[in-house]
Amino acid sequence: MDVVALAGGVGAGKFLRGLVRAVGARHVTAVVNTADDVEMHGLHVSPDLDSVTYWLAGVADRERGWGRRGETFRATGELRAFDPDAAWFNLGDLDLGTHLFRTRLLRAGLPLSAATERIAARFGLGSRILPMTDDPVTTRVAVEGGEELHFQEYWVRRGARDPVAGIRYDGAEDARPGPGVLEAIGAAEAVVVCPSNPVASIGPILAVPGVRDAVAARRDRAVGISPIVGGAPLAGMADRLMPAVGLEVSAVGAARAYDGLLAAWVLDAVDRDLAPKVGELFGLRVAAVDTIMTDDARAEAVARAALDLLG
């Protein structure tokens, strides 16, 4: 079964580890959010692309959730000694190698998709990783008081402390889907929305013209997994962003983010009582299972539960 997964962040990385166990690495294509990409110290940093790559390669730091296992932060620590304000984005030493390589390729004229393919090859991945677009798109967070922040400034530099007034995906309206994205969705036997932040991770992917329509056209073969368990995100700041776009912080609110795009929805067993409401509101087939992916075996069970809903 060929599966396309819309992905971003730690939840996607954990889930994809299980998905490749369920269907085989060569049958998985991850379409990954790039709207939280940021330039740091002159380097092009792609947090979600790197997170997905590291998780699929088996080199991610499971305890921290992001970055490389066995990472050190000597360069960032030295920069912090010079100028603490310049070191707010914590880049690991191994991670710097990825950013240096990517930036060199981009400056040589290669698109982000080609650079991503080369990075995936360096890690020996059997799955495809496709950036949602090669064009610049940035998630910007409007906070109370009128200031608008780059997503990384809101989340990392200011610790998501600011009350959120609105979200926009700057540049999305002019972006084109990355090479192979629409074709992969159209040919997939299953489209899976990973348990990622529906606003910061999946929202930007769907905002690229053509992508939402492509997923909607495959609605009968599309399933999503709730990133909200017991009324709270397992990680990240979805609870800060979802209300800003009119979504309740619940498995129901997360499903509402994809209304008209899915045939099925997986929520956690603790939210079992919400299953009838999700089914009634959105016309979805629903499964309630343990979605806490503590290891690859649990992630595989979640992936199989999602695919089983599609028949």
How are the SSEs ordered, and which strands pair?
Layout: E1 3-7, H1 9-23, E2 28-32, E3 38-40, E4 43-45, H2 47-57, H3 74-82, H4 93-107, H5 112-122, E5 128-131, E6 138-143, E7 148-150, H6 151-157, E8 164-170, H7 181-187, E9 190-193, H8 198-207, H9 211-217, E10 222-225, E11 228-229, E12 232-233, H10 238-241, H11 251-256, E13 264-268, H12 275-282, E14 285-289, H13 296-309
Parallel strand pairs: 1-2, 1-9, 2-5, 9-10, 10-13, 13-14
Antiparallel strand pairs: 3-4, 6-7, 6-8, 11-12
Helix pairs in contact: 1-2, 1-13, 4-5, 7-9
Quick summary:
The protein has 311 residues and is α/β, with parallel strands linked by helices.
Plain-language structure description:
This protein is an alpha/beta fold and about 300 residues long. About 40% of the residues lie in helices and about 20% in strands. The protein has 13 helices and 14 strands. It has helices at about 10-25, 45-55, 75-80, 95-105, 110-120, 150-155, 180-185, 200-205, 210-215, 240, 250-255, 275-280, 295-310, and strands at about 5, 30, 40, 45, 130, 140-145, 150, 165-170, 190-195, 220-225, 230, 230-235, 265-270, 285-290. Strands 5-2-1-9-10-13-14 form a seven-stranded parallel β-sheet, with helices on both faces. Strands 7-6-8 form a three-stranded antiparallel β-sheet. The longest helix is centred in the first third of the chain and has 15 residues, at about 10-25. The protein is globular, with a radius of gyration of 18 Å. About 50% of the residues are buried. The mean pLDDT is about 95.
